Amino acid sequence: METLYMKLSKGSIAPNVILSGDPWRVEVLKKYLSKPKKVGFFREFNTYTGSYQGVPITVTSTGIGAPSAAIAMEELYQAGMKVAVRMGTMMTLNSDMLGDFIIPSACMRGESTSSTYVERSYPAVADFALVNCMNEAVTFFKASYHNGITCSMDGFYSKMHESRLSKELDFDIMTNFEKLKSYHALGVDMESSCILTLGNLMGIKSCVLTVATVSENLNEKLQSNERVEAEDLLCRVALQGIYIQEGRNKK
User: Fold this and answer.
1) What does the pLDDT look like over 129-172, one tens digit per residue?
2) Are 246 and 122 a contacting pair, CB within 8 Å?
3) What is the value of pTM for the model shown?
4) CA 231 to CA 29: how far, in whole Å?
5) Cβ contacts of residue 120 below 8 Å, gap of 6+?
6) Which of 59, 51, 47 is nearest to 88 (CA)?
7) Of 38, 78, 96, 187, which sits most exposed with the smallest number of CB within 10 A?
């Protein structure tokens, strides 16, 4: 039976799954897969299955935010997913990290979707072995990475970037960033803590691989050509990281 939104069935996906927020980034990544087969493009979920250096891999998109990411995790799990890697971008709290990879060991659960599954005291932590594989993949491509704590939030224009409405409502967005800095958080996104929480509840390996493309409140950001190059490298690192972990599993 096909899943409700993504139209997945057992056999249509690989055990290793890369989740991209942006549906069009999936089109970039699929160019690095051997014999990519289009599983479907329904709503925000654009899915291909292929292989990288002999390792079967599925890549799909989740759209923006934790609710749709949870739907993707649920339906991929139903179809047989065993490894989940969120591959995306991060708003860094340190502009010196722009262009670097942020691979969190754990995330603060500032979004609300994961709380519909389990109480807040349940930690959103990554699989350490999988994190180390991603670290090694970044090093393979001679790039820089940072491990540590990040935070996921629901409201982009209410918590992460000032807007006309947030100003009219007198939201103090910069105070959010200062508080997170005092916790030594590296960055902010909208999906990671939900994906890691569900990954642990499902008993599968999960981690987050992001590249810092903007700083707090979008005060600084990679230029268009820099961002294109950074996201292309992000795709290659994600694939290489899964290839590394697959090799370690066979030892």
Assistant:
1) 999 999 999 999 999 999 999 999 999 999 999 999 999 999 99
2) no
3) 0.97
4) 9
5) 109
6) 59
7) 96
